[in-house]
Amino acid sequence: MTYQSIFENEQQSNGEIMNKTILITGANAGIGKETARQLAMVKTTEKIYLACRNRQKALAAKEALEESTGRSIFKILIMDVSDSDSVRRAVAELDEPVDALILNAGGMGGKEPAKRTKDGVTVITASNLLGHAILVDEMLKAEKINKVVLFASSEAARGIKKMGMNRPALKNSSADEFASVFDGSYFGKNFDPMQVYGAVKYGGTMWMSAMARKFPHIRFVTMSPGGTRGTEGMNDLPFLKRLMLKHIGMPIFMPLMGLSHSLKAGAKRFVEGIANESFKSGVFYASKENVLTGAVVDQSLYFRDLKNETYQDNAYEAVRRFF
Length: 323
Ligand SMILES: NC(=O)c1ccc[n+]([C@@H]2O[C@H](COP(=O)([O-])OP(=O)(O)OC[C@H]3O[C@@H](n4cnc5c(N)ncnc54)[C@H](OP(=O)(O)O)[C@@H]3O)[C@@H](O)[C@H]2O)c1
Fold this sequence. Notes:
Blueprint: H1 3-8, E1 21-25, H2 30-40, E2 47-52, H3 55-69, E3 74-78, H4 84-93, E4 98-103, H5 123-141, E5 145-152, H6 175-183, H7 193-214, E6 219-223, H8 239-256, H9 263-275, E7 284-287, E8 296-298, H10 309-320
Helix pairs in contact: 2-3, 2-9, 4-5, 5-7, 6-10, 7-10
The structure holds NADP nicotinamide-adenine-dinucleotide phosphate.
C-alpha cells in the first residue's frame, strides 16, 4: 500500500498493527486521545499507557476511552514532560517495556511559553522536545522500548507560508545555535510562540533523525498530524489570534484551502506511522508543500537541511546539554 492510499482510505487498517503495548504522552486530549482511541480499536493492541500530567484529566480521558471503545486496556502514567524529574520518575514506575512510544504532548507552550524551566530551556521547548528526549533516553537505558518511537512534529518545522509561519532560519544550525533556540535566547524580545514553535519542532525533528542513526534497532519516525481541528492547541493564543485561527479559520476557511482536517484524520497519521514499516526511520513525514492535509511525503524534498547529518548531530548535542 502506498502512503497516499493509506491516507486517502478513511477506514481503519486492521491487521497491520503489531504493537501490543503503546505509550502516548499528552493522551488526555486532542490528537493524543484520539490516537489512543483508534489504537484501542485494533484487536492486537493489549495495553495503552496514557502519559498525562494531570490525574483528574487522565482519569476522565480513561473513562471516556473505555466507554467509546468498550475495552479496559488503558493505564494512567503521571508524567509532566516539561519536568525532567517527573519524566524520570514515570519511566522508573513503568514496570514493563512498550513496543511503541508516541511523543505527542506539546503545542505552543501554554500561558508562559518563554519562561525557563529548572532545566534551562523555555517551556515551549521543554514540553515539545526536552522532556521527550529525556524520556527516550531513559527508556533506552532501561530497555523499556522495543520497536518504534514517533515524534509529533509539524509542517511549521519547514514553514507554512499560507499561515505566516516562517521556515526556521538558523544561520548555520550549529549546536550553539540550536541550544540558543532551546533556551529562548536566540529570539530575544521577538519571542513569538507561533515562530518559536516551528524552530523547536525543527530541532526535535533533527534530534529524531540523529537518534535513528545512533539506534538502528529502533524505528524513529517523525510525523506531523497535519492541520487538525477539534484540539485544545490554540487555547492559550491571544484572544484575536485564537478567534481568527481556532473559531473562524480552522473550521470554515482552512478546510477549503486544504489546511485543516478532522481529528480522526490527524490521529490516523500517528496510527499508521507506528504500524507501517514503510515509514522509514529518520525521515520526517508531513503534508505536501502548500497544504496541511492529504498524503504525507518526506519533507527533505522541500527543505534540504533536514537531510544534513551534521545539523542533525548538532541538534542532538544541543538538546543533551540540558539533560
Ligand atoms: N492540531 C494541529 O493542527 C497540530 C498540527 C501539527 C502538530 N501538532 C502537534 O500534535 C501534538 C498534539 O497536539 P493537539 O493539537 O492534540 O494539542 P492539544 O489538544 O492541546 O493536546 C495536547 C496534549 O498534550 C498535553 N501536554 C501539554 N503539555 C504537557 C506536558 N508538559 N506534560 C504532559 N502533557 C502535556 C496536554 O495536556 P493538558 O490537558 O494537561 O494540557 C494535552 O493532553 C502536539 O505536539 C502538537 O504540536 C498539532
